[in-house]
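Sample intake — Cytoplasmic membrane protein
Collected from: Streptomyces globisporus
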Amino acid sequence: MSERQSLTRGIRRWLVFFIVCLVLSGLTAFPLVTELRWTEDLLSASASPVPEHFPGLMEWITRVREGLDTIEREQPFMLYGTDWLAFAHLVIAVAFYGPYRDPVRNIWVIEFGMIACAGIIPLALICGPIRDIPFWWTVIDMSFGVFGVIPLLIVRRMIKRLEVLERAATAVNPPAVPAGA
């Protein structure tokens, strides 16, 4: 296998991983109320160490679950916002099909994703306190940007190497110019 093929295969593997993570992240935003109920049940089970060792986490999960229950009961249209959040994740995941098909030409999608990951940090730091989010939860939110950018940095570096290889191949074998051009 040539280095170009190997790079392309590696790029595609990382992109599939990233796309799957985006899709899963989006899909989990649809059943938010049910997920929070299950999470609270799991964390408060008799075998769980969470209530004893992490009471702040337990209080936060209960607070969020109670808030979502109230919204679902009294203002269910508000949950439409999380449906849009889910949809946005799915749409963004589709955008990464461009670099999957043609990494060099669509490197801008990777760079867009990197900018979006960086944007998570100021968003969490600004909006977290405004929305009364505990700082430790803000740190968890920021971790999505930090961990999300890692595969994108790897892919970008691989695409840059692939670009150099493609330029070298084009210099050695320039494309044929059609007759009459």
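Post-analysis note: The mean pLDDT is 94.
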